[in-house]
Amino acid sequence: MRLFWLTAFTMVPLAANSVLNRMAIGAGLSDPVGFAMIRLVSGAVVLAVLLFAARIRGRLPAAGPVGRRTVGVLSLLVYMFGFSLAYLGLDAGVGALILFGMVQVTMFLGAALRREPLPASCWIGAAIAFAGLAWLLVPGSAAPVSPAHAAMMALGGMGWGVYSLAARGAGNAVADTAWNFILSVPVAMPVLLLALVAGVLPEITVTEGGIALAVVSGAITSGLAYALWYRLLPELGAARAGVAQLTVPVLAMAGGMIFLEETLTLRFALSSLLVLGGVAMASLGGAQRTIVSNGS
Questions:
Q1: In which domain, by residue range, is 125 found?
Q2: How far does CA 87 lie from the centroid of its chain?
């Protein structure tokens, strides 16, 4: 039960990233690239402070193996920029479905490749959760799907899934997340500057409101929230973690109703029950299996 509630609590700030992103980009307070870059830098600064505090206590973790760090940095960048760029041409529901559908596929593929034991409750819970999410987002959606932006969101979902899988091998989740954010900045900055100079990207325009939203997204709902999330991953396993992340679109839509004045519908309420019920089945069933295994 502890694992279920900690997972549910961690999904809230992750869902807030979608709301903050839509608030900034949808209202024209920031362009997608500028928002993503400020979000990345803000997360790096906050997590660097945590690393510095660890150094003062004499426990500064190293950056870790080059291979895993490279995967972490690149997959983080793919998620960050793919996520922001995709919302230029996708409505929130379609974007969320593509993103977390790809996360689901990536995480389950990772579980299969690792030959991770997948109890029946996990598969049943995944099916119920995905069915609830599909029922909520697909029927009645009138927003046209841009192939280019759908591909961006799909890449973002793959990035998040690969990043989650890579983080499972970390001995210190906070340090691992911190190094990924810190090392991502010097990788992304030169590429963006060259793209701007070459005219590949339009001029970056960010208002004060956009900066504030990006800083909150980077420092709190990304950096700190990710550190907590990846601390839970070893207990969850790849498959159950993929199912749990399916709650984020539902929570993000709830945030949209509260902060963006979206309308509550019966379909939303019923779909939420299906999604959260499926996640509970997968998480609690997996937790019971873990207890039995450790006890033996």
A1: 2-289
A2: 15
